[in-house]
Amino acid sequence: MHSSKKNNPAPQPGNVTAIRAQVRQSQRVSLYIDGEFAIGISLDTLAHEGIFVGQYLDQSNIDRLVAADNYDQAKHAAIRLLEFRPRSRRELADRLRQKGFDPSTIEAVSQRLSEAKLIDDDAFATSLVEQRMRTASRGSSAIQRDLAKHGISKDAINTLSVSHNIGAAEADQALQFARKVANRLRGLDKITYTRRLSGVLLRRGYPMSAVRAAVQCCWSEQSSQQEADESDNQHTCDESE
Asked: What stretch of H or E contains 40?
């Protein structure tokens, strides 16, 4: 049951004595049973269940209303989340669980949204891989961790790794990213330089072989540049004399 209902007493069987529009939520109404507020439901649930004033609701009727309203609220919460950005099935389920919806309701909503193609793990995973490869300077292991974190299966990750050739250009990508970082490490001794630059690259998910090559190349380039700068300074000093 949704968390917003936890502190409310369970509705009891009886006659529907009033159906009133809710002030703050125009798409919801409040049902009164035997003169007391019983439950809030959506207009969709009201119409689907055919509730009317004077109707007697037994326990099975009430249980069905509660379940239908939980489903309706979970579905709308899921759609609002998807309006911000695409999400994997597990990610969406985790967010609905945080909002207090029960597992059976979450599964029903997830199944319905999957059937409607509003959640599609294959499309989500493909989009995430392409985005990471295009803009994020991430190594293959980092991309694979991202996919796993979103609930993408190991088989799907392996298939994507092959189809998108993840990792094929890692050496070049690692070097390009290392050069951007290396400018901030100028002046450090080789041990400190190597440790810091390697750490940055490893956290980005690049394999050790690509990290070693990139660090060695950057250190060599920086050393050559430093020697050239010192040589230029020496020439300037000689000329001034």
From this structure: strand 36-42
